[in-house]
Amino acid sequence: MTKTLKSITSPNVMKPIGPYSHVVTFGDWITISAIAGVNPTTGELAGPDVKSQTEQILNAFEILLEAADSNLEHIAHVNVFLKSMDDFSEMNEVYEKRMGDWRPARTCIAVSDLPKPGARLTMNLTAVTAVKNT
To answer: Which structural domains are found in the chain, ordered by start?
Structure first.
C-alpha cells in the first residue's frame, strides 16, 4: 500500500492565518501546525491570559487529532512557544490537567513575537494515530 501525505483543515478551530494546513498526516504520523488560543466562533483570543489561551489550544488539538483518528494520549512531542517565560507555570497548570498522566516529549522556548496579536503562546505537535482494536 502506498502512503501519501494528506492535509486536514478543520472549520472547528481557528482559521489558518497563513498559507498552511492545520494538520498533515503520513501513514500513522500526524503533525499539527502552531495554533494560538483563538475562539473559532469569534476569531478572537479565548482570553488575554495564558491559561485561557492554553485551554483553547488544547481544545483545538483534541478536535484536530480526532479528525486525524487520534487523541491527546497519542501525542509524541509538543513544542510550546511562550511570549514570556513568566507564563510557564500557569501554562503548565492547564497543560498538566488536560494531558492527565500522559507526558509526551516537550520543548518550551520563549519567542519575541507571535503572528496573532495578543497571543501569549502557540503550540504545535507531532502525534500518531490511535491504535484501533480489531
So the answer is: 5-128 (3.30.1330.40)
